[in-house]
Specification:
Distance between the termini: 7 Å
Number of domains: 1
Largest sheet: none
Order of helices and strands: HHHHHHHH
Helix content: over 70%
Radius of gyration: 19 Å
Structural class: mainly alpha
Keywords: Membrane, Transmembrane, Transmembrane helix
Number of helices: 8
Number of strands: 0
Protein name: DUF4386 family protein
Oligomer: single chain
Organism: Alterisphingorhabdus coralli
Transmembrane segments: 12-34, 54-78, 90-112, 132-163, 170-189, 195-214
Shape: elongated
Length: 223
Amino acid sequence: MMSNSLSENRAGGLAALFCALSYIFGFGLFLGVLDRSGYDGLSGDLAFALDNQAAMVMAMIILYLAFGVALAVLVIALHRRMASDNDFTLQIATSFGLVWVGLVLASGMTGLVGLQSVARMALEEPQAAATIWSSIGIVQSALGGGIELVGGLWMLLICVAAIRDKLLPAWLNWPGILIAIAGICTFIPGMGDLAAIFGLGQILWFTGLGVHMLRRPAMVLTT
């Protein structure tokens, strides 16, 4: 019998492509559509969020909640595609992948609930609302984007396991390792700007992975 199905690989491939598209959406929205000029200080951060509340809600739904769901599908689909008996490296990779899913979802839910709360508070206590929104931003960043250690470790271990067992093409694995290292290094003080490199690199990696999974579904036989 087959160790995984065509439907699982299609689901994983589509999930990878969605992850790439969500990154493109995020970069396009915050770098090309929304204009932060004139919004200075804590009060400016809150004013920006409230003036663009609909876009912020949409962004958190797509970049965190929908991305988290798609990532969960991809993590499991990759695990089942690559799995072999007692594969310690892959098991650790999948563990980090699922932890990343939880962190991304938690970050999105924190942002959504926090935005609703400060929007109500801002009507009566704007200064307190601005301070709370700043704190929410710190928590949200810590959970889902300020440090890419967990996602980088998942990606690194996936690529290492794939190189060892020749499960994914080299054009995915070796660039993937470099992108993963950039993400891992974001925990080092002063290296936070590498998060942008990690995100841009993952657009390419997720796209390539998605196309590969859709065009070359694994057909591994088990006894």
